[in-house]
Specification:
34% of the residues lie in helices and 23% in strands. The protein contains 11 helices and 21 strands.
Length: 448
Amino acid sequence: MEQRRSRRWLYLLLMVTVALGVGIVLEKGLERTGHASETYEELRTFSEVLTQVQKHYVDDTKVKDLVQGAIRGMLSTLDPHSAYMTPEMYKEMQVETKGEFGGVGIQIGVKENRLAVISPIEGTPAHRAGIKAGDFITKVNDEPTKDLTLMDAVQKMRGPKGTKVNLTIQRDGTADPLAFSLVRDTIKIESVKFKVLDNTIGYVRLTQFQEATGRDLGRALKQFKEQKVQGTILDLRNNPGGLLTAAVDVSEQFVGNGKLIVYTKGREGKKDEWFSKTKETLEDSPMIILVNEGSASASEIVAGALQDWGRAVIVGTTSFGKGSVQTILPLGDGSGLRLTTAKYYTPKGRSIQSTGITPDIVVKLQAQTVAKVGDKDAKEAEPKSAKAPAAGKEQTSPKAADESAHKNGAVSLGDAGGDISVEDDVQLQKAVELLKTWKIFKELRPAA
């Protein structure tokens, strides 16, 4: 039975080889037949290895597992963001873009060749436990992450609500690793939260870019207009990105109609451009955008576009620097391929990959603190260089988690856009101060 399966896979590989050869000849002409021959030779070597493994490996093997492992290995040689998705992973990815999935609430990426936290999602187990943007995940359930792909790491952290996952974190400035024991939950993401501050400033926070983000932002801006706000703060801190189309939907509501928002260039130099189309904008209102090291991808598209058009002042710290575009390609068996197909550029041609968006005004956060483990009534927090708590114990009390979230730039609006604490958030304080100063200078009149 297994031999028949093996022969079937080899036959399929041969057919793929022939298809690749024909495709190359038809697309590029007869001068490319050498490339087709080279592809055939390499695939023949692969089929020989597959056969030898099946015949001689010490344990029984399944062809499907071997081929999927080969696919994962092939994609891992490209870049950290290209990956193979099993049918289950592909389905889960489709659900995630609609704003609900199971897990601990961490958006991850690769930085300095290590698995990094882009940002924790507000109100999730990871956020409440005190995991922060910029943390490096060194182990998942005691398994080192060094050789894991992004998709594999995501799968290990996902799971049914109520189950546990242990993470080992290395944090800059902390000598010893931090151990977190997290209980998985259903992660529901409310991507747009907003509030009017001091009766004059519209504050809107985007936590992620989903299908409905542009629409929900439009509702918030409509309320700002009705309340005649005199300035707007767009908070993109710890926003790991999301859909490119959602980034365009958001940007166009601030820059006016017919403006270039972003363009991409792929392998062959093909250039695709996205322009604003809406006429409903706040283009005359002064604006501040808040970013930090947890702002990535779609967040950087928005910040870069509005910075290039002179539409907003960027405040905070340099963003993450993810400027590549991943295309999701469905495969015949229900699985999918996440493949980096292009890099995106701001309207002025800046590439954000590995460099990020540099703020116009740099405002660094104050020293981050966490409460002492087991001390729920602690009035003063322990420095972040404290040793890690034992796995299974809470990193912070709920109150301390809220306080540390403010100090990390994650402003909590509550379940229904409740009170905002500006007191401990120096970046938000600077944004409010700038908009108030903006108004003062605008109202200045020359003496008679």
